[in-house]
Amino acid sequence: MLEETLNWRSTYKPEEIRWHEVEKEGETGKVSRANFHDRHGRTVLIMRPGMQNTSSSDGHIRHLVYLLENAILNLPEDQEQMSWLIDFTGWSLSASVPIKTARDSAHILQNHYPERLAVAFLYNPPRIFEAFWKVIKYFLDQKTFQKVKFVYPNNKDSVELMRSYFDVENLPVEFGGKAKLQYDHEEFSRLMMQDDVKAARVWGFENKLCHINNVYSGAEVAPEQVPLAPPAS
């Protein structure tokens, strides 16, 4: 698996993906990094499959990989895993990603980011999602499958399980919490631009910083001081 991942990283080059390359995929906020952590201090990715805005399988996967790398980049030193919150508001079977895209995404997560996922909460999926899930679950290995938790507002045990991972004050109202969260694409893009600079320095791509600044000309990108050591993959 390690050899396969090294080969994949050498060809796909996930650490070199920059926000301007995947920004279109992120316009609706279908996947974004939350501005809060779970109770263990882990980075949180919020996913909104109902906000799917493109039909490009490659674009969808590249955008997801970018945010996986970004989540890892922003992990605290004592953490190696991330948590996912998945909001099914507006989701429909007709607007869902193709089965092949879901399969390829699962393959990348499991084979190239093993044990990076701590838990994934699927909040209030519609009944019709069961048909989609019956297919998708066969693409998941047993470890990943056990990390997927279904949460329904009228199921007290499932709600309590999710709240054991998240402070209700930080949890968005879409997930039964008290925080109001509205995706601001302009603000999120600004944060991703800053992280692109940080990632280039972490991975030793200082020579590409000039190109990044040219792409983001006119944007306020504040450089950050970061250790010059690549994160574990």
UniProtKB/TrEMBL annotation:
It comes from the Eukaryota. InterPro entries: CRAL-TRIO_dom, CRAL-TRIO_dom_sf, PI_Transfer_CRAL-TRIO. Pfam families: CRAL_TRIO. This is Random slug protein 5-like isoform X2. Residues 19-183 form the CRAL-TRIO domain.
